[in-house]
Amino acid sequence: MIPEELALLAHRPLLVICDYDGTLAPMAIHPSQAFPQRGAREALRALQEHPERQIVVLTGRRAREVVDFLELPRLRVIGLHGLEWPGRPEPPRDREAIRLIVSRLPQVEGLWLEDKGWTLAVHYRDTPESQQLKAAQLLAAVPLPAGWEAMPGKKVCEYRPIGYGKGWAVEQLALEHPSHHPVFIGDDRTDEEAFAAVLRLGGTAVKVGGGESLAPYRLGNSLEVVELLSLWAQAYD
């Protein structure tokens, strides 16, 4: 069920910012299997063509991965929580910091690493369920190099340079489109900073799925996300 307040936003110019995994795509066992929800491509394409919509995907993935999944080459995708910004110079990669973090990781059954070049994600969804809470605690407590931070997510802990993040990216996008009402839709703990930013800007935060959140509005799953985006993609006078 789409909340009425969200449906009524269709009558305003909108800056729609969406997470990918768990939002535009159902959560998958492995990142390579996170295919978009049925209807997501069509809804995003229609939003691109709407004269009063700006649509952006803001993800912790590399941007190219999401473009390949969605098969929408003109879609604006910002990757690595704002580190990878189309049209801007890439920040330097601190490979020594990533090597140091890897050397300090705990020895836990089922951990696997996703090296994204600029950031490092450590997944523990393959860790036995009885050990997952302990794994999360150990990963959050890893000593980090100066200028780095840990971002816990859904059965993952991501290590990234300080100074970026989805909250920062939302603020940058809102500055680009001051006449559009900003909306952020996401499902993960890493999206909470984006919710906080969009609410500070007077915008709308939408949480997908359960769990505590700053977001005032809820959608049940990625199917409802597609339903909402399709509604906003319709033309209104």
UniProtKB/TrEMBL annotation:
EC assignment: 3.1.3.12
Record function comment: Removes the phosphate from trehalose 6-phosphate to produce free trehalose.
Similarity comment: family membership: Belongs to the trehalose phosphatase family.
Cofactor(s) needed for function: Mg(2+)
Pfam families for the chain: Trehalose_PPase
Annotated GO MF terms: metal ion binding; trehalose-phosphatase activity
Name of the protein in its database record: Trehalose 6-phosphate phosphatase
SUPFAM superfamilies per the UniProt record, alphabetical: HAD-like
UniProt KW Lipid metabolism keyword: no
Keywords: Hydrolase, Magnesium, Metal-binding
Superkingdom assignment: Bacteria
GO biological process terms held by the UniProt record: trehalose biosynthetic process
InterPro entries: HAD-like_sf, HAD_sf, OTSB-like, Trehalose_PPase
Lineage: Bacteria, Thermotogati, Deinococcota, Deinococci, Thermales
Pathway(s) served: Glycan biosynthesis; trehalose biosynthesis
Catalysis performed (reactions): alpha,alpha-trehalose 6-phosphate + H2O = alpha,alpha-trehalose + phosphate
